[in-house]
Amino acid sequence: MDSSLESSSSSNGPPTRCCRTCKIIVIGDAGVGKTCLTHRFCTGQFPTRTEATIGVDFREKLLQIDGEKIKVQLWDTAGQERFRKSMVQHYYRNVHGIVFVFDVTNQSSFCNLPLWMDECRQHSLGLEIPRALVCNKADLMSSNASVLIEQARHLAEVHGMSFYLTSAKGLKGDQVDSIFMALAQRLKSQRRESVNGRVLECRAESLKIQARVITAQETKKKWTCIC
Ligand code: GTP
Ligand code: MG
């Protein structure tokens, strides 16, 4: 993938100008590390201190993928139900990509994933929207985590999601970068396909119109001949 990171900004930073924005929502149980992952991607740092997200936090990063600038806008959502209520409708509007996160040290955060997927379905997010499943806190992983990880890989495969085992805290942030960069790359190629598709549709439509004109002319000719 010929992708590079051109610049980054946080929710408080200056607005970035570019051609396209991809909205990616990051969802999962409270405390699984959504804020740390998005912070790590946008700043390259593990935050020294985090508090439970209230509503939503926004982070942005400008990527350059195959010569095109894409602004990745991350919606770091609240995991706690009481902090989500008023915002849920906004989370799911005009979404281009979804990242589901669970914590490898917390089995129930994995068991709750179907509920998060249901919430996406209920808000009409179809399977055509690229999604990733992230198993976070790999630095705290115990030796018996392998069963959970296999289950997670299987779940990802069944639902057509990419799977990542990451640590927002780990020395290497490249796995964290891969989650968002791969999604942005997929969104970019999806758009190319849909643009190509639209060009073909337009061509087909214009051929249909031409065919209709010819048929109409021929019908008129035949009718004229008969009379
Ligand atoms: P909500 O905003 O409440 O939904 O939680 P969240 O999913 O945003 O979790 P957050 O990023 O705030 O992290 C919760 C706790 O987990 C914090 O104490 C983080 O320091 C810690 N944490 C997050 N990611 C990692 C990781 O990869 N490794 C380790 N060791 N700790 C992590
Ligand atoms: Mg948070």
Automatic annotation (TrEMBL):
GO terms for biological process: autophagosome assembly; regulation of exocytosis. Pfam families: Ras. The keyword Disulfide bond does not apply. Keywords: GTP-binding, Nucleotide-binding. Gene3D superfamilies: P-loop containing nucleotide triphosphate hydrolases (3.40.50.300). SMART domains: ARF (SM00177), RAB (SM00175), RAN (SM00176), RAS (SM00173), RHO (SM00174). GO terms for molecular function: GTP binding; GTPase activity. One of its GO terms (cellular component) is endosome. Belongs to the small GTPase superfamily. Rab family. This is Ras-related protein Rab-33B. It comes from Danio rerio (Zebrafish). The lineage of its organism: Eukaryota, Metazoa, Chordata, Craniata, Vertebrata. The gene is rab33bb.
